[in-house]
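User: Hello! I'm new to structural biology and keep hearing that structure can be predicted from sequence alone. Could you demonstrate with Phosphoribosylglycinamide formyltransferase? Please show me the input and the output so I can see what each looks like.

Assistant: Of course. The first part below is the input, the amino acid sequence of Phosphoribosylglycinamide formyltransferase. The second part is the output, the predicted structure written as tokens.
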Amino acid sequence: MPELVDRVREICLAFPGVTEKLSHGTPLWSARKGFVQIWPDGHHDNDFPHLWCAAPPGAQESLIARDPRRYFRPPYVGHRGWVGMRLDAEPDWDDVEELCELAYRTVTPAARG
């Protein structure tokens, strides 16, 4: 799914100070701390393309309650409030961009204002 990766890469690299590296074989975008990771071929039991995104307190629960078919608690980072977003249906790219921006602002204090 290179088009998914390219689209998320474009969104994330538009934020100031963001770098990209491979982590566990998939792209991770960081601004001093990781804030978005994409799993284009799925990961463990989530065998569909998806994102893991940093989120502020309460956001994970709110998003999952709003749409449990699209959002989920990802393994490894879900206990820290990160949220997963499915990308296997036609993604709403406005929602993807908003979630990536929320993730960026979560790990970048200067961007919160």
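User: So the tokens describe the shape?

Assistant: Right, they're a compact way of writing down the 3D structure. Reading them back into a model, for example: The beta strands are 19-23, 26-31, 33-39, 50-53, 71-72, 83-86.
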